[in-house]
Amino acid sequence: TQLLEQSPQFLSIQEGENLTVYCNSSSVFSSLQWYRQEPGEGPVLLVTVVTGGEVKKLKRLTFQFGDARKDSSLHITAAQPGDTGLYLCAGGENQGGKLIFGQGTELSVKP
Amino acid sequence: KAGVTQTPRYLIKTRGQQVTLSCSPISGHRSVSWYQQTPGQGLQFLFEYFSETQRNKGNFPGRFSGRQFSNSRSEMNVSTLELGDSALYLCASSAVALAGGNEQFFGPGTRLTVL
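Structure tokens for the assembled complex are given below, as produced in the milestone run.
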């Protein structure tokens, strides 16, 4: 059974601080996606990484896919209150629409 | 382009009843996946439909079923509802996947409460 372990589960920081969320697995994934979800809404796709060692930047967010395609990280620089939400990583298989999700990281950024 | 839509947004049922949820994917997307989200278990994969055929299935009992129509719209059905079926049910659509890519776009979900 493929599992994705996400850490930390909860993170409460002050505006302007940096943070990193980790997503680890013993399985290899063909792709890995990061989502952000707000209460009562569906997850919104932030980024997809497919190549081992790949790094993608989205404004203050930096995403990295591990060389072995088993782990990923999300780094946020100078966090803002608008970054508050549930961050989810999800691993995809070679084909088909099945995603394996991590448990999520609940981020709270206080002004 | 309109996003994924799900109806209804909220639903209250009692134990033993059945329920049908609907999902309209992004125009041109042929794959529709369903997920259940609960505070304890997180997001869990239910099943995926592609070209009206179930292509993948998660570890849920047979009370959970689905189907896809020729226009790619999908429905999922839960029969003999149990209290533990209370959850946010999410639908996601994707285009025919490129090699290694599984980008999925989610709808707002249907909040099901079973009393």
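The mean pLDDT of chain A is 93. Residues 54 and 110 of chain A are 31 Å apart (CA to CA). Further analysis is deferred to the final report.
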